[in-house]
Specification:
Layout lengths: L1 H23 L3 H10 L11 H6 L4 H12 L3 H10 L6 H17 L2 H17 L1 E3 L5 E3 L3 H22 L6 H18 L8 H11 L7 H12 L5 H16 L3 H7 L9 H18 L18
Antiparallel strand pairs: 1-2
Helix pairs in contact: 2-6, 4-8, 4-12, 6-7, 8-9, 8-10, 12-14
Pfam families: MPAB_Lcp_cat (PF09995)
GO molecular function, one term: oxidoreductase activity
């Protein structure tokens, strides 16, 4: 039994290290140590709901859903298509997003403020004109409100479906309230403070949303054409299938995303349970350490 246990631990460490390196980038280990080991006050204590959500493997599903949902705002999609470099460097973008979420969720208050300032500085340089002739800028509070609402709704929806510790209703409200602190720092005016307000924000944006050619192209890239090694394609397909399954039906239809027949829905859900469970197992901290891994996600 000891041999089996040691072999399992070696395999877990190997898979977890590879996955963490892919998600967090070459600076991941150094960033993780700074985030979790630096002394000082944090924006969020260990008991806060945001730590539960952002530290769970369900974020892999939530991050994919967030990208797909966010693309439905023509101005947000225009900014991403022109400035994010998601096609040329998707893993670099993922690493930057993952690090931002980890720093603001788990890092010191000083580091969180620095990370926010860096993002805001980048936003001031992201300007342009969408294909319909409307100008956009990434620091527009209205556009930031959409990106934030779509992200928070996606993370929470995925967590409630696949998280190891689904939240109660009050805890869901607490999670939305926690994320509002980061949103306010980034420039969102009056972000939602509970689930009811979050739903109201999403409903208000509905008339502005549509699938542009750029959005459908991005959806195809995310779902069907990611630059992945062969061994990662099957679990990735399970993640994307569940991200799509958690999307509003009208959104999936607009983006031309494949949806599983209703009879196959339980199989799709089961695949999500299996893959997120494997990721959770692989990325669990070593038995000798209580330091949680940097939360993997996409989004900003």
């Amino acid at each position: 039994m000891d041999v089996i246990r040691r072999g399992s631990e070696v395999l877990r460490n190997r898979v977890g290290s590879q996955l963490f390196a892919q998600v967090a980038g070459p600076d991941g280990p150094r960033n993780r140590e700074r985030i979790h080991q630096s002394p000082g006050p944090r924006w969020f204590g260990p008991e806060r709901a945001i730590r539960v959500v952002h530290g769970d493997a369900a974020m892999f599903v939530g991050g994919l859903r967030a990208l797909l949902l966010q693309s439905l705002h023509p101005l947000a999609m225009a900014a991403v298509a022109a400035h994010s470099g998601f096609r040329g460097d998707p893993w670099g973008r993922l690493a930057r997003t993952s690090t931002f979420l980890a720093v603001t969720t788990y890092g010191t208050a000083d580091d969180a403020e620095t990370a926010v300032a860096q993002v805001r500085a980048v936003h001031t340089r992201v300007t342009g004109t969408a294909e319909d002739g409307r100008p956009y800028r990434a620091d527009d509070p209205h556009l930031l409100a959409w990106v934030h609402a779509a992200e928070v709704d996606s993370f929470l929806t995925a967590h409630q479906a696949f998280g190891a510790q689904p939240l109660t209703r009050n805890e869901c409200d607490a999670y939305v309230r926690d994320t509002a602190r980061i949103a306010t720092a980034l420039g969102v005016a009056q972000p939602p403070l509970d689930v009811e307000q979050l739903r109201a924000v999403l409903d208000r944006f509905r008339p502005e949303l549509r699938a542009t050619a750029a959005a459908r192209d991005a959806a195809r890239f995310i779902v069907k054409e990611p630059p992945l090694p062969r061994a990662a394609r099957v679990p990735y397909k399970a993640l994307t299938a569940n991200a799509v399954a958690l999307m509003p039906a009208w959104a999936s239809l607009a983006l031309g995303l494949p949806t599983a027949p209703r009879l196959l829905a339980p199989m799709t859900r089961r695949s999500g349970d299996v893959v997120t469970g494997l990721i959770r197992w692989a990325m669990a901290p070593p038995a000798s350490s209580r330091t949680p891994p940097a939360p993997p996600s996409t989004g900003r």
